[in-house]
Structure prediction request, 326 residues.
Amino acid sequence: MTYFSFGSSLPCTLTCLHQPCNFPIPSMPNEKDSNVKEPPKMDQVKSFLSGGAAGVASVLVGHPFDTLKVRLQTSNQYKGLADCFRQTVAKEGFFGLYKGITSPLIGVTPMFAVSFWGYDVGQQLVYAATPGRKSKDLTMTEYALAGGFSAIPQTIITTPMERVKVMLQTQDTAGGSGKKYKGMFDAGLGVYREGGIAGLYRGTIATLARDIPGSAAYFVGYEFFYRLLKPKDAPISIGAVLFSGGMAGVTMWSIAIPPDVIKSRIQASPAGTYKGFMDCATKIVVKEGPGALFKGLGPALLRAFPANAAGFLGREAALVTMHSMW
Prediction:
């Protein structure tokens, strides 16, 4: 069994998101010895499954904060984060904080896989656009461009997943009596019956407005802290990976809240409430003031660090397990 410690080093991971990692090979008296262990090799299956593990770990840790964030963004019945937490637990119990979790749990595996795939493709596009470059190392601006690109294919999965999640998270705070949906599949089917594919993809523009700059900030944040903490010519520690992953999440949500508020309002409101992204933003500011665009910032930032740190740890644990198997 492999144990992790915050001072230990990563023997093999996808921690370095833009190039293959180096694996330490034990020194042997005879280099030709047939018992020399080959370093573990990455493949698409490992990349996909480890990305899924990262998403599952991130959702399990971060979903309660996400529920509070969405409720603060879509309802005016709470005085703040603490009051929202108190009312939710008092009325629905602790597991009320996990309402709507099935949708992101099912969606995170392809979402994370597509996100990291899109990031790789984005970097390839940067290299293709700069054939005469003198260094193979990308600048932070180029990492931002690659990260922003990753959000475009990811939105295909993210938008319907979050549409269903938001409906489940807010149905107990919406007007009317009783619950409209029994669970994820019932909600997804209900949304489809009411609005078709367009109903499931309501909020796509707002999702892109959040995730393009958000993903750019996410990957730049990770690359920056990774380089800051990684010792020269030495593996990076798990503690440093957790910190880098956590700070990537904080960096993203520091700028992503206003479009996220708009997205949540569009996805939680009845069809026809808003004409589009700008109409929703204008109505929120006119009716509630500019501060309303930052509703949910507290739980989003509280969630960002532990959820993304857990995601990178889950990814590392999955890789170590798979490397031991094949």
Observations:
- Residues 1-9, 11-15, 18-29 have pLDDT under 50 and may be disordered.
- The two ends are 15 Å apart (CA to CA).
